[in-house]
Amino acid sequence: MVQPVGFAANPETAASNAFQQPLPPTDALARNAATQFEGLAQALREAGITVVIAEGRSEPCLPDQVFPNNWLTLHADGTAVFYPMQAPSRRAERRDDVFTQLQREAGFTLRRLIDLSGYEVAGRFLEGTGSLVLDRVNHVAYACRAPRTDEQVAADWALRLGYRLVMFDALDADGVPIYHTNVMMSVGSGFALVCAEAISDPDERHGVLAELEASGREVIIANLAQIGCFVGNMLELRAADGSAVIAMSAAADTALTQSQRDRLTAHGRIVSAPIADIEKAGGGSVRCMLAEVFT
User: Fold this and answer.
1) Residues 266, 211: contact at Cβ < 8 Å?
2) Average pLDDT over the chain, rounded to an integer
3) If you placed Cys at 230, which of 12, 196, 285, 293 could pair as Cys (CB 3.0 to 4.6 Å)?
4) Which run of H or of E encompasses 290?
5) 2: Cβ–Cβ under 8 A, 6 or more apart, which residues?
6) What is the pLDDT of residue 1?
7) What CATH number is given for 14-289 in this structure?
8) Regarding predicted confidence, which is higher, 295 or 140?
9) Of 68, 95, 71, nearest to 84 (Cα)?
């Protein structure tokens, strides 16, 4: 996790993120975001999750640095990937000083760094596990096409990482392309939550659902209204005792039906925290705030 120093609604990302609200940048908003960040980190730690917090940077101004999963992914073989970011202000979020801290606090040893940021020159982007929802067991990557998710870059990523790519088009309730795949689906070890109605092409919808079912996971369907509450933006984590924790925001937790909650808790304990200001101004939620560490 990265501290939200200078947090504010980023005007450079607003055009492609329909979940983002144009809140004015105020000291109160920044303070609220910092408080909500600490509340989430504390809730995760109390659930037995090891949380590594990188210090946020004030220069240059990085209003979205609280969402590190877009510029960095870590993999169990020691691979790390830097990603091409659409907004110029977000490109400075990439930093290699975190690897020393990750080694010290989480035991992640960097063995290979793949830097895809060169695609930015060509206007092609792929924003980490915002763009890609990963089935790390079967090496399948799900991605909805969007201005921030370029098919060519995704194919290059899949080739380098040894993944099979499943791409599709997805629209929100207003018919606007969904900017990041991770707001409409989440893949855990035993479950997959997906907003099937967001996948606009019936053949692609059938293909995604068939792929998820073939993986052996329990498929849980969410609707478009729930996606607006960030129900899709959840992440399964592993606690120190080996148990599964499903992290999400308080808004997402509240939006779950009892049936969905019962099915999810069969796969892990739900841990949630209120992050309303981060969700409103940043247009992202808990999953976006977490770059998971594999060792």
Assistant:
1) no
2) 97
3) 285
4) none
5) 53, 54, 55, 56, 65, 66, 68, 93
6) 98
7) 3.75.10.10
8) 140
9) 71
